Amino acid sequence: MEFKSVNKILEKSIRDHWDFPALSNYQGVTLSYRDVARRIAKLHIAFEQCGLQKGDKVAICSRNQANWGVSFLAALTYGAVAVPILHEFKAGNIHYLVNHSEARVLFVDDVIWEGLSAEEMPGLRVVVQINTFKFLYAQNEEYAAVREHLNESFGKKYPNSFGPEDLDYYEDSAEELALINYTSGTSGFSKGVMIPYRALYSNIEFAIKDAEPQLRAGMNCVSMLPTAHMYGMMFEFFFEMTIGMHVHFLTRVPSPKIIMQAFAEIHPDIIIAVPLIIEKVYKSKLKPIIDKNKMIMSIPILDKVIAKKFCTELTNSFGGKFEEVILGGAAFNPEVEKFLNKIGFHYTVGYGMTECAPIIGYAHWDKVKVGSAGRAAMNMQIRIDSPDPRNIPGEVQVAGPNVCLGYYKNETATRDSFTSDGWFKTGDMGIIDEDGYLFLRGRSKCMILGPSGQNIYPEELEAVINNYNYVVESLVIEDDGGLTALIYPDYHQGELDGLTRKDLESRMSDYLVSINQQIPNYAQIKKIEFMPEDFERTPKKSIKRYLYQRK
Predict the structure, then answer these.
(1) CA 225 to CA 357: how far, in whole Å?
(2) How far is residue 374's CA from residue 367's CA, in Å, rounded to a whole number?
(3) Which domains does the chain have, with CATH numbers?
(4) Residues of the chain scoring pLDDT < 70
(5) Which whole-number Å values give the CA distances from 266 to 180, 216, 226, 238, 322, in the listed order?
């Protein structure tokens, strides 16, 4: 792969598409590429006057919105390292990540800032209100004055006018650190994935040349996955900006109703989604009709007619204009996938992870194999650590320019994640067929995908639960679209304290409210169930998680 500077690609795209629409808040403001460039230029002046050096960290913690995109692009094109933080994290988690990343600037929503404390983040020079770019906090009066005189400083720097010829963004190199993406928010669990510019470039090249060559400037994309995660950030925002597309941020919780409404209005040319969205449409709209017409659908000729009607109906409900729906981030319900394949719906299931920024596997919709996660994506290699990779599942290992540099300030985790010959160990299990298609056979990592694409690590939730009285051990599982906590109580201790089983379970059921107050809203636990005996364990005394899964 021949590397090209990512920031120079962005510079050219902004220059070439100066008057095109760039970033919109759904049913709100639209910024053209000219507007984005102007805001970036002002932020660059502010960065410089606040003493920000190349390589310094800029944290961004807000809901999806146009100014999230501006802030992220401003950091990279200045030569700073972006640190996206999921806005749904609790205040303590945000403090921890800002400090761990050594961020000097924090862009933040008003609502989030209300729960934060500048004293808890002593390394910050300024905190910027993301909606208005006003300073909510400045370390000293000199930095505070920067914002007050920003328009004046901009006028001095560009006395005649500000045009495409004034763009001169930082020229990055392949191995240079572009961003740190944290896998979660909790100290002890969170790992800061160090994404180099080569990984961003390789993912962009894959999208332009292989996955979506039909996309052009002026086309539309709806951004509904969290931009703080690599999947949504790379393929619902960043790649689109490099080719002059128009990104529409939903800005609200992406419920199926809002998503479908946006699709109907915007008619996106590409759809990036998690399986849950299509599964919900299938269960609510299509399955009831299928169940009613099973007899008719068993007649071959009628079956084809009905299948075509279903495909048209589903395609129209997603805006009717897209080339394909790319699904990723979690396992796809086999029943739903078989149905989509049967009716000829334009979908594909990709495979990726934060550590590969994010793409690893992909196949175009007309080359999909049901149940697979595609083939090795452009620039990438996949191998299975197994004596018989076609038949005996082994760990999926990957190599190529998409792979991260390792984990920030965590040499042990970095060392443990690579083989002796330099391949990245994904922690997922799978096989590869004779055509090179990857079939995942389970995840040795326990991550659960949240309702809007957030990563939920059950070990973090279990760490909270296990702190409560009478809890011997807990296990958080996905259960009918929600989360259930399986708890093995200390019945013996309860008995010693004069509690019957029923009394103990009743008391422990009341923990639910308190537990949910300590964890993010997207990871709320719906119910607690009690185990009559201890969990089954491996020789290493780890719980055999796979025995308790319900999905």
Answers:
(1) 15
(2) 9
(3) 6-172 (3.40.50.12780), 256-443 (3.40.50.12780), 457-548 (3.30.300.30)
(4) 185-188, 294-299, 301-302, 442-445, 538-542, 551
(5) 32, 16, 19, 19, 11
